[in-house]
Amino acid sequence: MSLLKPFSKLPGLNTANILPAGKYEGHLTSTWQTTWFKLVESEEQFQQSLADALVEETSVTVNVRLAKSLPLPMENDESRPRIDLVVFIINLTSELSFQSAEASLKYLDPGYFLGKVCFMVTNARNASAPAERLDAVRKLAASLHCPLLFAEDQTPDGVASATERLLTILKVAAGLVPIATALYVSNLTRCTLPLDIDQPSFD
Prior knowledge:
The chain is an alpha/beta fold and 203 residues long. Helix content is 30%, strand content 15%. Strands 2-1-3-4-5 form a five-stranded parallel beta sheet, sandwiched between helices. Strand 3, helix 2 (95-104) and strand 4 (117-122) form a beta-alpha-beta unit. The longest helix has 18 residues, at 156-173. The chain starts with 33 loop residues before the first strand and ends in a 14-residue tail after the last helix.
């Protein structure tokens, strides 16, 4: 089992790299840099919709690797490119989805939590999604100082909106935005706990 590390490999400058990893992998031509973006989710339909939209980006090459959970197989470690952003997609109607994301975190190097991890939740408006689970996701994201995004996965507009927000974070995490750093943007966009969620008392 492999611990995923964000800085163990150099990025590819002025190259367009592709790693064949199944039908969700995509490749577009770029004169600058290939960025690698990992989606961790068990619902493949939304993964595929996001992946298809992400690889249509033309300003940089976006390659999408898909995984249901971490860790990644050790045998592919040497050939695996540097992954710039890990996104945990959590279906709020599924306790297993949350547990899988939570269990996967221990397979990430601490360096990823310096602006290279974010959480995305779906079905937040679903009546069957318990409020306690959303609170738990918020607490998890806040404790790790990570952004928390909400996505509507049932409509093309919702997927397009989620894609746009992920691309903004991805480009910074990959070092493709001058001056901006992943840690700085993460500090601006990280999840914070609302006042109605249990917090330490200073009274």
